[in-house]
Design goal:
By secondary structure, this protein is α/β, with parallel strands linked by helices. The protein has one domain (22-314): Ureohydrolase domain (Arginase, Chain A, 3-Layer(aba) Sandwich), CATH 3.40.800. The chain contains eight helices and ten strands. It has helices spanning 56-63, 97-112, 128-139, 167-173, 195-203, 219-229, 261-270, 293-306; strands at residues 36-41, 76-77, 84-89, 117-122, 142-147, 177-185, 206-208, 233-239, 275-282, 313-314. It has an eight-stranded parallel sheet, with helices on both faces. It has a two-stranded antiparallel ribbon with strand order 2-10. It is globular and about 55 Å long.
């Protein structure tokens, strides 16, 4: 019997039953012995358009029940070398964004003190700012792989400086990320002005608009990013709206002309050489996709991210 936690097999207990944890992994009430902690941050009070991401973690967990532990494409077997558990949801304040951001940072500071790699299910993209604050407090400014339809570098939204659309301006201003090792992949759509993208380029951000990636494999891009990052700690933040709405309609700010799911897999697979110290997947809004396909896609991308974490065994 393996010494590591294993997802409950569909041959032992029907997939439509059992615990509502990510991949039906054990739920942990403390971090002792864990290498990876999967957690939910059920929040949508940082959004500016369609809400509903507060339901994201619950739906992602539900759709993850179909995922099996062995990665057929890459040979990765993450649960053979990493101790992984679902630690539940953070108890955010659903009436206060500022309070919730503080709760997230404090919670992450505690998680990181145990040398655990956190893997978060959002929630809207505002959750990434307090996560980066905690990550940088431990690792220093990190490299960033940011997959998204939007650059999220607004100065403010409705006068608020901490929202899902201002995350990476604040991260840049606060020195949480390395600007010349920040990669924004899949950005696209309409804007208010050219500066919506170009200003961040002036800070050193590397941007890869979706229209430059159409009909291309993203594997070479992932390899290039890993070479440039080297051994630096890197954080990966994956907004589900980076995908075209044909693949992921259940999100708050959809933009046409996005990435495909094969491209998403190619990119993640190519990041296997990166020193990933944490990751998140955000902006899944189940009310806008009754089929559950968006959450299903999100669950699989989270599994693929776990499969490229440092220390994962490949058979």
């Amino acid at each position: 019997m393996s010494e590591f936690n294993q997802p409950i097999s569909g041959n032992d207990l029907a997939r439509f039953s059992g615990p509502n944890t990510f991949m039906r992994l054990p739920q942990a009430t403390n971090l002792d012995g864990l290498d990876v902690a999967v957690l939910g941050i059920p929040m949508d009070i940082g959004t500016s358009w369609r809400s509903g991401t507060r339901f994201g973690p619950k739906q992602i967990r539900a759709e993850s029940a179909m995922i099996r532990p062995y990665n057929m494409a890459t040979g990765a077997a993450p649960f053979e070398s990493l101790q992984v558990a679902d630690i539940g949801d953070l108890a955010i304040n659903t009436f206060s964004l500022s309070d919730s951001l503080k709760i997230i940072r404090d919670s992450y500071s505690s998680i990181l003190s145990s040398d655990v790699i956190p893997v978060a299910m959002g929630g809207d993209h505002s959750i990434t700012l307090p996560i980066l604050r905690a990550i940088a407090a431990k690792h220093g400014p990190v490299a960033l792989v940011h997959v998204d339809a939007h650059a999220d570098v607004n100065d403010d939204m409705f006068g608020e400086r901490e929202t899902h659309g201002t995350v990476f301006r604040r991260a840049y201003e606060e020195g949480l990320i390395q600007p010349d090792r920040t990669y924004q992949i899949g950005i696209r759509g309409s804007g208010y002005a050219a500066t919506d993208f170009s200003e961040a380029q002036g800070w050193g951000f590397r941007q890869f608009p979706a229209w430059d990636l159409w009909h291309k494999s993203l594997a070479p891009l992932g390899v290039e990013i890993c070479k440039e990052i080297g051994e630096r700690p890197v954080y990966v933040t994956y907004d589900i709206d980076s995908l075209d709405p044909a693949y992921a309609p259940g999100t708050g700010t959809p933009e046409i002309g996005g990435l495909t799911t094969p491209q998403a897999l190619e990119l993640i697979h190519a990041l296997s050489a990166a020193n990933i110290v944490g990751c998140d997947l955000v902006e899944v809004s189940p009310p806008y996709d009754p089929s559950g396909n968006t959450a299903l896609t999100a669950a699989n991308l989270l599994y693929e991210l776990i499969c490229v974490l440092p220390g994962v065994a490949a058979r």
